[in-house]
Amino acid sequence: MKKGTANRTQGVLKRISGPVVTAVGLDAHMYDVVKVGNEELMGEVIKIQGENIIIQVYEDTAGIRPGEPVENTGLSLAVELGPGLLTSIYDGIQRPLEVLVDKMGNFIERGVSAPGLSHEKKWEFVPTVKKGDEVKAGDIIGTVQETNIVHKVMVPPRSKGGKIKKISGGNFTVDETVCTFEDGTEIAMLQRWPVRVPRPVKEKLNPDIPLITGQRILDGLFPIAKGGTAAIPGPFGSGKTVTQQQLAKWSDAEIVVYIGCGERGNEMTEVLTEFPELEDPKTGKPLMERTVLIANTSNMPVAAREASVYTGITIAEYFRDMGYDVSLMADSTSRWAEAMREISSRLEEMPGEEGYPAYLAARLSEFYERAGRVVNNNGTSGSVSVIGAVSPPGGDFSEPVTQNTLRIVKVFWALDAKLSQRRHFPAINWLNSYSLYLDSLNEWYDKEVSPEWNPLRAWAMGVLQKEAELQEIVQLVGSDALPDEEQVTIEVARMIREIFLQQNAYDPVDTYCSMSKQYDMMKAIKHYADLARAAQAGGATPAQVIGIRSKNELPQIKFISDYVPALEKILKDMEAEFDAMRAA
Amino acid sequence: MKEYRTVAQIAGPLVFVEKTEPVGYNELVNIVTADGTVKRGQVLDTSDEIVVVQVFETTAGIGRDSGIRFTGETIKMPVGKDMLGRILSGGGKPIDGGPEIVPEKRLEITGAAINPYARAPPADFIQTGISTIDGTNTLVRGQKLPIFSASGLPHNDVALQIARQAKVPGSTEEFAVVFAAMGITREEANYFMADFEKTGALERAVVFLNLADDPAVERIITPRLALTTAEYLAFDLGYHVLVILTDMTNYCEALRQIGAAREEVPGRRGYPGYMYTDLAGIYERAGIIKGVKGSVTQIPILTMPGDDITHPIPDLTGYITEGQIVVNRELHRKGIYPPINVLPSLSRLMNLGIGKGHTREDHKKVSDQLYAAYAEGNDLRGLVAIVGKDALSERDRMFLEFADLFEDRFVRQGLYEDRTIEGTLDLGWDLLSTLPEEQLVRIDRELIQKYHPKYRKKAQG
To answer: How high is the pLDDT of residue A4?
Structure first.
């Protein structure tokens, strides 16, 4: 990327105010990467005001003085893409944290740069095209067995393409040429892509395949489509992080990108230690082999936090381009928005709502719009599903970040502190949550689970809704005052909540629940409800119906992996009990 | 060192200096007043035209005739082995009449972020001897677990009890305590000091005191000095350090005061927009590092203005810290000590430090069941107020009674009562045994048969 007009690449610092500095005597374009001060701290141009170039610095600026040099690299903030991404743990600007420990010890000091990918390591490149083939931008020209995931080496999106003159297999570093076109263009495995620009695709597809997560309340009641967007807002302490980690572990995406944006150090450590140990249920290999982690904790520089979500989604798009389903978790987008606010206030910009910059909504929608299930330029199809956590201050959903997010995303998993206080996990409120993908996913559930599933879900939602209404009455007059039939409805709703909705993330079996098990469990509850109704029609009292003992065994099903025999026995016992009741 | 007499403006704790040579951001500044006193400050904003200095002491006596000396270095804290047992001012100067600290190292007080990759996951259970913490909101080494309180509640007693009783069962390593007071009254400070001295805790403690009548701005550096000391004790000397910061609300007020003086665009309730990042810079300085012996565990205390947990200070704190212990006025009024309300309390790292190999295998399930049963009983209290006890079903009445029992026996304990974790869990089982067994839906059959008093008695007799 040559800039024709950039001639003054050296300037001097004029003002330093926290992470925002001003330089003069420099030609620059918006979002150029610059090196600030004698220590060459990394920064990015975020505002140009006449002669004043305003720069956000990705590292601590303590001790930097006016008069120190500033150098413009003329490049945009970009990430390195190629073999070696998987299993990596980066900070917000794609510096590998492991390398940083080697270079500067246990604490993050400044002025140290580290490339995102190893430039020494050799990878075995296997060509999938041959001499004389015509390739264009985005086409796959070869593969590398990166982990258990096959990394597909592609012609960079901005290449003109061409006819292959030379291509050969063998061991290469990411910088070495693996393919030469007839016009002399050389292609290496490494690509660089500016993080703030979406990578190009051919077309976007409809969201009609669900992302299966193994979490009953999500798959069963509020599913997200592959390539869809979801928000998890939740006041602190409502189990948001555990829910997100469950999604990262269990969702059926091939690649997981997890962005810890402004979150807790110890929590990131939990992720960092847990992921490598976790077994991928599908391959038996460590989950880390298909994961890229980005950890920019709350006390790491705020500008790098701002960049971290872009770094993450660019990496996600790169794997999507290879034809993979990628799920991206951003925890938390509120911290990202706060980084924007902090930088905006240092720029002395006119604030919008609650001090957030006026461009908050635009930035959020640009980000979520990078999700989607697509046909790539090389003909493969892949998806990026984005699940963003928001942390509304005081649990107040009317605040700008939550509101602007809800305007964009299609799925809303409303975490509820009240539920988590009651140790109802996942603490997702079934009345406030929604999924706008239900209609487009109906067909998939009909075909892949059972034609009975959609009505079953509607029934369960109906019971839960009914319970909420009845609870209001119960609050006033007590449960005994309800009509007999409704007393049983309350009992059935309780079963749906405690058996189906509650799921124990720490139980080895219950942590993942297949769609067929979800179906069987819900069907069992419905079966009880039907038997109870019939018994009541035959004159049974609510106490008799609720007193059926075998139904108390149902919750145990959750913790049994080979559950079918146990479930069948419970159902048989249940029928026998009802029969006995009728006989008596 | 050059001295400037070019003060252009003084506003609150801020001094604006003109026409200087290049001055570094965050640099330490000495201000010499007409009578020769030297005050310390820090550069908040620097440009070739004007430098903004934040003064850590009162600006009384500073005028346009004051001399400004830029030291060319950022604020550093002298640290050394002999700090244990010392009492320092909020600015780090000895105030116990003892000698100056002999520095073995001079450390930057802002402290660099621990590389997340270098952190080790917290796993060691800390027994505080308080059931509501150990049993249901377990503290783990390397955690930051704040106490959310409000004015007039006994949070100081709780903090002291933790400082006194905290230990890792089965481990002989002792805790060092770093205690930083920000804006507390002389009386409160005396209370803390008396307890430290009485229990002999002072000899393994470092105390920083910024009292209510000390300059508010000094509060900005007090927790940073304390944490720098704690990190030195932990990561250089291998101590397990418990840091108590009280009261973080006063710290945030000081932050707001500076923001206002700088005429910054305020965020919620007038607190600066960067308060989250600023607080994170404090709270995140807790943890364990792989391959390094010591640890830093933090218990910040804050008083919620108007008992409001959604106020920006508790709210932002809760987003950074790993849970919270909530001290509750209602329980306090009922005469229950410690008045910890377990329902809104939470320890996010609990699961790392409990269970087999840490505490006992039934810990998690017992805790979940206690929570659930107490929550249900507590909800029913609202209902009883409307319909009366007689309208309740048999089952509901049992849960209602459970809630009272829970508060009376599990929550309530003596100021000097140090319960073991086994004692706490067995007490939990005792309470749970008042409920019918089939209501214990959160506990697997196996554990019930092993620990439920009914079966235990049978096994014994």
So the answer is: 45
